[in-house]
Design brief:
41% of the residues lie in helices and 16% in strands. By secondary structure, it is α/β, with parallel strands linked by helices. It is globular and about 55 Å long.
């Protein structure tokens, strides 16, 4: 069943901009939460504003929150407050206004993996205030789903990239390093990540909206293949016609684990979804659309 009206939190962020454009093109009605006495930007820590924004809404897609691991270490209170209370407020606003569907975009919560690829049954081991705050948000989503009959999908994306991403995220930071000095500093020689192009992620969300499952469901989301960070840097250098020198910061190993590769069997089978954009194509699109 196609959803008529959707509230998207974090609509002005990296994923939010891509998502809202696609939803509008697909015939969905997007609300920005500005209604009644609330004309300021949506604040997920304001329950009253959220309850007003959720009126006549069919589904909520929750993207808003603090996403920086480094920032969460400097200011854990704000990270926990915004990420946990934001989810709690949205769920309560949904309960009060009878919204029965919510998509909660979480993060990688597994820490150092024991099995590759990583499925949804893998041991949970969040490593920072940011990842722990997102896990707390997942837990309250599950409780509200059970207690108040709200269908909730939690997505755990491994690494979303594309044009318009935050400058301090991995791929934009590598592009800037190549552009400036033709040198790249990487966090560990053996670190691998599962990169999913943002358009593929948006395609998945649309597929979920058109075939929303009952109850509470969690899905890992990635391409299903991991790449060494060095490979990403060299692909970008080739596409930028640059020769680069790579340095490794072995003294600061990644707290997220050396190899983050998603098992996407569950999400692929549930929504008949498969990523389409290869890493080479996605990096090329990013370079073409962004101005560095």
């Amino acid at each position: 069943m196609k959803v008529a009206k959707i509230l998207v939190t974090g609509a002005k962020g990296f994923i939010g901009k891509h998502l809202c454009k696609r939803l509008t093109e697909s015939g969905f009605i997007i609300t920005d939460g500005k209604s009644g006495n609330y004309q300021r930007p949506l604040d997920v820590t304001d329950l009253g504003q959220l309850a007003s924004a959720c009126r006549d809404v069919d589904t909520v897609i929750h993207l808003a929150g603090r996403t920086s691991i480094k920032r969460s270490l400097r200011d854990p209170y704000k990270t926990y407050y915004i990420n946990y209370m934001g989810a709690l407020n949205l769920l309560e606003a949904s309960r009060l206004t009878n919204v029965k569907r919510l998509i909660n975009v979480s993060t990688f919560v597994y820490g150092q993996p024991h099995d590759i690829p990583i499925n949804e049954k893998h041991r949970i081991d969040p490593h920072s205030p940011y990842t722990k705050s997102k896990l707390l948000a997942e837990m309250i989503c599950q409780y509200y789903s059970c207690d108040f009959d709200i269908d909730v999908v939690t997505l755990r994306p491994f690494q979303i990239y594309g044009w318009g991403a935050r400058p301090d995220s991995f791929i934009p930071s590598v592009i800037h390093q190549i552009s400036r000095k033709e040198e790249v500093f990487l966090n560990g020689k053996n670190v691998r990540r599962d990169f999913l192009f943002v358009d593929d992620f948006v395609d998945l969300i649309v597929a979920i909206l058109n075939n929303f499952p009952n109850g509470y469901n969690v899905y890992n989301v990635g391409f299903g293949k991991s790449h060494a960070l060095e490979k990403i840097a060299r692909i970008l250098a080739d596409q930028m016609n640059k020769r680069i020198k790579i340095h490794y910061e072995e003294a600061n190993p990644s707290p997220s684990g050396t190899n983050m590769q998603a098992d996407i069997t569950k999400v692929s089978e549930a929504f008949r979804w498969k990523p389409r954009v290869t890493i080479e194509e996605g990096l090329k699109y990013t370079l073409e659309r962004d101005s560095f």
